[in-house]
Description:
The structure is a single chain. This protein is mainly α. The chain has helices spanning 10-19, 54-61, 70-79, 90-96, 110-122, 127-139, 141-151, 158-162, 168-187; strands at residues 33-36, 49-52. The chain has two domains: 1-68, no CATH class; 69-200, no CATH class. The protein is globular. The chain starts with 9 loop residues before the first helix and ends in a 13-residue tail after the last helix.
Amino acid sequence: xxxxxxxxxxxxxxxxxxxxRHKCAMCGRHEPQLHHIDEDPGNNDPVNLIPLCxxxxxxxxxxxxxxxxxxxxxxxxxxxxxxxxxxxxxxxWVRLRFLRRSDGERGYSWKFxxxxxxxxxxxxxxxxxxxxxxxxxLRSPLDHMIAFLRDQxxxxxxxxxxxxxxxxxxxxxxxxxxxxxxCVEMLRYQSWSRKAPTAA
Length: 200
């Protein structure tokens, strides 16, 4: 069933376009269209919208043979780092995807995927440091989440979250986001990320 298209409110459209200086988020061309990342034309939340020129919109996002991974586009939208779309980031991305699989999809070895990601990250510049940080978040995501919330002035205890089953998904989401953000931050230290990305 096709989802119902709801016109993007002018204030929301302007907010997103202003955020990207009225240019395509991927290539920088002028006069972009707004793309719904989750492909629901009724979800006009600003974080679900990204400005794309007609070429990037059709050739990269809606390409019938190999469209961009929706979660990868969400990461790009959140971090605004163009190197997420660089082909050299793709092997890292492949190793990050296990973090967002639901419990029912975990027919693979969680331990193997964690080890593979940490080992792969070590091969990058500053990789030893980032591998250690990733390992720490993987082992104790709740501790990292509490520290993050306290840094924001929100006082919560470990017991508050552990005793609330509804917040367990929040911890999973925090772990995935924190590790993705560490990998994106690591990109700044790679020699290839100092040059303009080339089209794949």
